[in-house]
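ok so I'm stuck.
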Amino acid sequence: FWKHPNIARLPQELLEDVLAVVRGILSTEDVDANRQPEPAPEPQLMGIHHMPRAPVTPDPVQMQTLMAMGFDQIACQQALIATNNNATEAANMLVSGSVP
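replied:
not stuck anymore, here's the structure
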């Protein structure tokens, strides 16, 4: 890099700034040689399952379908919210009694 022909075309002030930064890095490496590195931060999971969801409003058609099966209105709402309006999963929750 330092022998690249375009370096001669760079402004002198820029080269001096770059050299100052490099000198600073090299001088702190000697001082910090015995220092223990800080632990890396915990990785942040950014998959779709870890992102906040917008509030779910129970679909009125799905509500009517589930209520027509004889389930309670509140239980139907909770099941639809928990399953993001998936009527099949909501019905499974209601039948199994695992509504939150």
